[in-house]
Specification:
This protein is an alpha/beta fold. The protein has helices at residues 18-31, 46-56, 65-89, 100-110, 115-126, 141-150, 164-180, 194-211; strands at 6-11, 36-40, 93-97, 133-138, 185-189. The longest helix is centred in the middle third of the chain and has 25 residues, at 65-89. It is globular, with a radius of gyration of 16 Å. The structure holds thymidine-5'-diphosphate. Residues 14, 18-19, 41-42, 56, 72, 97-98, 102-103, 106-107, 157, 159 line the site of thymidine-5'-diphosphate.
Length: 213
């Protein structure tokens, strides 16, 4: 399928403020006249949302790391085929809350499955539909986790309950990916107050949209 829209993904550790920032960026871009749609992973379509429930349920503490990585990739393949690719074909800007870099960071680095295997099986799931740009909301685990646990709205999921060392590996993994894929990664300092994070992201997003083809 020919891709005419722009596929931009957002990444970051727990409590980076991704969902709030993405909604603010969506409003900002719509006001500027862009045709924008927001989605998320794991999920984004009914089948992928069902897979999400299995992955994130606090009852599934026994899930093997290999099962987890395959389920994320399965949800991703479905999300792309059923939602993202058709939206891009219509020329939309698709903003996606987490994508393949979450698997590379959480499953490859933090769960220690290894970069190559996670990259290969996700390459199969993704085909040619890689994001043109990835915005990393870069937050230190101490600050991000404090936000998560102090928030009344946000449900705590199975992955929030991982150890501090796990979140530290996620943080370092993202920095490594930003270097490895420096052509598409843009880093935003998400340790600041959320309003400042939103403002900085709005500043970079216009440049990103004008730059990517
Ligand atoms: P979610 O509640 O959407 O968290 P957040 O608001 O932080 O995005 O839960 C998604 C969780 O799934 C999050 O902890 C990161 C994890 N995840 C992976 O481990 N691998 C993946 O490929 C994806 C997409 C998410």
């Amino acid at each position: 399928m020919k891709k005419t829209g722009k596929f931009i993904t957002f990444e970051g550790g727990e409590g980076a403020g991704k969902s709030t920032v993405i909604q603010a960026v969506k409003t900002y871009l719509i006001e500027k006249g862009y045709d924008v749609i927001v989605t998320r992973e794991p999920g984004g379509t009914p089948i992928a949302e069902q897979i999400r429930e299995v992955i994130l349920s606090v009852d599934n503490i026994a899930m093997a790391a290999k099962t987890e990585v395959l389920l994320y990739a399965a949800a991703r393949a479905q999300h792309l085929a059923e939602f993202v690719e058709p939206q891009l074909a219509q020329g939309k800007i698709v903003l996606c809350d987490r994508f393949v870099d979450s698997s590379l960071v959480y499953q490859a680095y933090a769960r220690d499955l290894g970069f190559d295997v996670v990259y290969e099986l996700n390459s199969y799931a993704i085909g040619t539909c890689w994001p043109q740009a990835t915005i990393l909301l870069d937050v230190e685990p101490k600050i991000g986790l404090a936000r998560v646990f102090n928030s009344e709205e946000r449900e705590v999921n199975r992955l929030d309950q991982e150890s501090y060392e796990f979140h530290m590996r996620v943080y370092e993994g993202y920095h490594d990916l930003a270097k490895r894929f420096s052509d598409r990664f843009v880093i935003v300092d998400a340790n600041q107050h959320l309003d400042a994070v939103i403002e900085q992201t709005q500043q970079v997003i216009t440049k990103v949209i004008e730059h990517v083809e």
